[in-house]
């Protein structure tokens, strides 16, 4: 749910995600079974550490780079700074799922991630009786700089009031 909400806040029909191939199968299902029905496409990077591969998959309609800080289940460690630099260069958001690493072991925002998500039912709660998710916004993503890519964040509200970005930053 946290992944869905975070991504739907950044994506619209006709847009695109570049994702690490090393992700939780539930997230892969979200991408390939659900978001595709909404007109959101995804391409997968096979070698998460290969900056050139990330760059090569970015299209004009790409709005999100997505990866896990410590992948489930292969334990691939993401070089957050390297991928954040690519996202920043293109003016798109880096969303990092840090469920497996937890905030105790990994703090992706300190390395350039724009949004970090966690499943609260895994290691944050320590047992399976809690269902929930956490979305943490770094507060550094500049929607104005990338305005034409994220018009829904900078356009006035439907009643003519301030935009989402003006109201919440």
Question: What can you tell me about this protein's structure?
Answer:
The chain is an alpha/beta fold and 169 residues long. Helix 5 links the parallel strand 4 (93-97) and strand 5. The chain has eight helices and six strands.
- CA gyration radius, whole angstroms: 15 Å
Strand order across the largest sheet: 2-1-3-4-5-6
What is the number of strand segments? 6
Structural class: alpha/beta
Q: What best-fitting shape do the alpha-carbon axes yield?
A: globular
Helix content: 25-40%
Oligomer: single chain
SSE order, as H and E?
A: HEHEHEHEHEHEHH
> What is the straight-line distance between the termini?
22 Å
What is this entry, summarized?
The protein is α/β, with parallel strands linked by helices. The protein is built from eight helices and six strands, in the order H-E-H-E-H-E-H-E-H-E-H-E-H-H.
Set down the secondary structure blueprint:
Layout lengths: L1 H7 L7 E5 L4 H10 L6 E5 L5 H7 L4 E7 L11 H11 L2 E5 L4 H4 L9 E5 H5 L8 E5 L13 H4 L9 H5 L1
Parallel strand pairs: 1-2, 1-3, 3-4, 4-5
Antiparallel strand pairs: 5-6
Key structural traits:
169 residues, alpha/beta, six-stranded mixed sheet, 8 helices, 6 strands, 31% helix
